Amino acid sequence: MQAPQAKKIPKELTIHGDTRVDNYYWMNQREDQEVIDHLNAENAYTKEVLKPTENFQSELYEEMVGRIKKDDESVPYRKRGYWYYTRFVTEGEYPIFCRKKGSGSFKDAGEEEVMMDVNEMAKGHSYYKIGGLGVSPNNKLLVYSEDTLSRRIYTLKLKDLETGKFLEMEIPGTTGGATWASDNETIFYTERDETTLRSYKIVSYNIHTKESQERYVEMDDTFNCGVYKSKSEKYIIISSGASITSEYQFIAAEKPKDEFKMFQPRIRGLEYGISHFEDRWYVLTNWDAQNFRLMQTKESNTTRENWTEVIGHRKDTLLEGIELFKNFMVVEERTDGQNHMRIIDQQTNEEYYMEFDSETYNCWSSTNPEFDTEILRYGYTSMTTPSSVFDFNMRTRERKLLKQQEVIGGYNEEEYDSKRVWATARDGERIPMSVVFKKSENTEPRPLLLYAYGSYGHSLDPYFSTIRLSLLDRGFMYVIAHIRGGEDLGRKWYDNGKLLKKKNTFYDFIDCAEHLIKEKYTVKDNLYAIGGSAGGLLMGAIINYRPDLWNGVIAAVPFVDVVTTMLDDTIPLTTGEYDEWGNPNEKEYYHYIKSYSPYDNIEEKEYPNMLITTGLHDSQVQYWEPAKWLAKLRELKTDKNTLIMSCNMDTGHGGASGRFEALKETAKEYAFLFMLEGIEK
């Protein structure tokens, strides 16, 4: 079967006196039958190429599903006299949200109430996703939301938890969450723009009178807004933010009709986050503090000149967040690429760090809705330790394991090893990598899959994956590269991998790969790269810069036509991204972005084997970006390597909505890697 050849209709795109010719611009017509036919032809070709692996794909899928505990249950947490938890039934693709009444222990609580069986709700939908669930303060009503299109636009609905009946309320076009005022009848929610998907308007709605009122409209199209309640439940807070600027407004939750009061007006470049505690606010901010510091201020005087310092700025440590309790404060920090949790006694000011065993791990504050408690619930995982939930007594320092992710079929942690490896980048920076592999007598270089993201200041922490065992057990090594563009080594790590320094992200990934080859972890013929979304941009850049380094590359929902997308402010996310990539309406940014944008830099040369994935309804990276990229690669590349694309015609950016269905995509990706490695079982 021949690979599909897309027709060419030249489209000239001119700005700043520079003309680009895009032969595949026509693919952006989602409703055009010719576009649909082309995507179907690509899918048919991919199916044909991967046909020899079909049985193996099924085996891999069964293997992955086989490790998952089918009838699993989350650790319950207590809030306002109820224990809340989620459970799955053996055949169910979706969760069941439950609660039990009781203020004592969970085992002494009352009968189970099923608030929402998503398996029932999802019937008849090819895609179904529940948004945020919000129980009213009197515990009687549940506001929830659903998305059946995979475009991240949710419809809010209402259920009476006492009678089990669904009530008359349908509010379309929202972000999915809703916040209750103290009166049990007013909800606040955020509206999303249907075209750009920007969250731009806060509305209050009375469930009895059915009256809605516009409370705030965000006029700056580079900002998004949202609404939530403080952990103290005293305030309803509106947040407005762009990637480097924040602003908050608040009202008392018991006075939902009040005017919102400004906390601190926006100043470009000033980021801050707020947490309410007794008679004051804590403020986490980058004001004169690249890695953030913690301030506090009285409830009544909230503007910046009233803030006083609680925890100062440190050059080597990023302050990431705080969790407040009546007598304790938990501080989440990151030093040298590793996150830590510091406990501060609010009475005595004594403090200590929680201790963990592994060289590379991830710890985080879990669900802690209760304020008056000495117990911190936290999560822990490492590359070799399944995800675990603990209760930690902050006074006695005793910890109790509540649940560890169960690996069905058995898993012996002793058979695997993980470590931290540092590569030196071309400009001298040291880049950390998290490595995991199955122990073996064999000292030969192994097949290796290198993964990274490197954008938006998103740090990639080490984590355990039952799915990944299918790679490790077949001899693969798996490596996460903590490259610039993330915030793994503090805010400077992010600042040095964005805007006019974006290329550091790509160079770091290549330099990590070179280091792994030099240190004999792998060789070029056995080296593979994987990345998705902005990490798919990374994949597009590295195959242009160093196509010779990789035997195969998987690019999931890749953002690869950066110039065209960033010039189109009708596309979702564009205007809010100027602080990340730059605004190409400005000449300097245009030429810099054009110099690395994967689609604009494809040349007549050899490229590695590639599998590209996308979704027709993807709202974050439009399907036409990967489709055009593939067509241009196929037109210009001079090799005979595999180049295929899998386009899911039903789903969007997050892929399939069911917990098992999504694994079919992963099985396909792994089968592609194993095919290139000559591994057949």
Description:
By secondary structure, the protein is of the alpha+beta class. The chain folds into five domains: 11-65 and 416-677, Rossmann fold (3-Layer(aba) Sandwich); 70-114, no CATH class; 125-270, Prolyl oligopeptidase, N-terminal domain (Methylamine Dehydrogenase, Chain H, 7 Propeller); 277-313, no CATH class; 318-408. Strands 7, 8, 9, 10, 11, 12, 13 and 14 form an eight-stranded antiparallel beta sheet that branches. Strand 8 and strand 9 (141-147) form a beta hairpin. The longest helix has 17 residues, at 33-49. The chain is globular, with a radius of gyration of 26 Å. The two termini are 25 Å apart.
| Biggest beta sheet summary | 8 strands, antiparallel
Secondary-structure content class: alpha+beta
What is the overall pLDDT average? 95
Find the count of extended strands (DSSP E, 2+ residues): 38
Gross CATH architecture of the largest domain: 3-Layer(aba) Sandwich
Quote the beta fraction.
25-35%
* CATH class membership of the largest domain: Alpha Beta
The number of helical runs is: 12
pLDDT < 50 stretches: none
Quick description:
It is built from twelve helices and 38 strands. It is of the alpha+beta class.
Fold blueprint:
Elements: E1 11-15, E2 18-22, H1 33-49, H2 54-66, E3 77-79, E4 82-87, E5 96-101, E6 112-117, H3 118-121, E7 129-130, E8 134-135, E9 141-147, E10 154-160, E11 166-180, E12 186-192, E13 199-206, E14 212-217, E15 224-229, E16 235-242, E17 245-252, E18 261-262, E19 272-277, E20 280-285, E21 293-298, E22 308-311, E23 317-324, E24 328-335, E25 338-345, E26 351-353, E27 361-365, E28 375-382, E29 388-393, E30 399-404, E31 416-424, E32 430-438, E33 448-451, H4 469-472, E34 477-481, H5 491-495, H6 503-518, E35 527-532, H7 534-545, E36 552-556, H8 562-566, H9 578-581, H10 587-596, E37 609-615, H11 624-636, E38 643-648, H12 661-677
